[in-house]
Amino acid sequence: MVVTAVQEASLRAQITATQRLLELERQLTATARGQQALGTASELDLLTQQSAEAQVAETLPPLQKQLGQTRDALTALLGRLPSEEPEETSPSRIWTLPENCR
């Protein structure tokens, strides 16, 4: 169960980083588009940047799918129904220790 929770946290971090990277790629594409309009960048420069943006965008759906599968597995490991999926899965939020262990 701990491995699954750690995997979920790792996937969330990867998704956040990928979303940030995608936003930066979009900004670079907009810059390249502006530069092309001004004549300081070629069509090839713009197409290269658009390709880089698309490559980053393609990495996001598999990560999101994997996160969903990991959350489903964690929910099952917790003995809950899919409708009872925990909102947050940090160990301190989903697991409670017996009174004699605190």
Which percent band covers the strand fraction? under 5%
How many alpha or pi helices? 3
Q: Largest sheet at a glance?
A: none
* Range of helix content: over 70%
What is the global morphology? rod-shaped
Low-confidence stretches: none
Q: Average pLDDT across residues? A: 88
Could you characterize the architecture of this molecule?
With 102 residues, the chain is mainly α. The chain has one domain. The chain starts with a helix and ends in an 8-residue tail after the last helix. The protein has helices at residues 2-38, 43-77, 91-94. The radius of gyration is 21 Å and the shape is rod-shaped.
In short:
By secondary structure, this protein is an all-alpha fold. Helices cover 75% and strands 0% of the residues. The protein has one domain (2-101).
Give the topology:
Layout: H1 2-38, H2 43-77, H3 91-94
Features:
3 helices, rod-shaped, mainly alpha, about 75% helix, about 100 residues, single chain
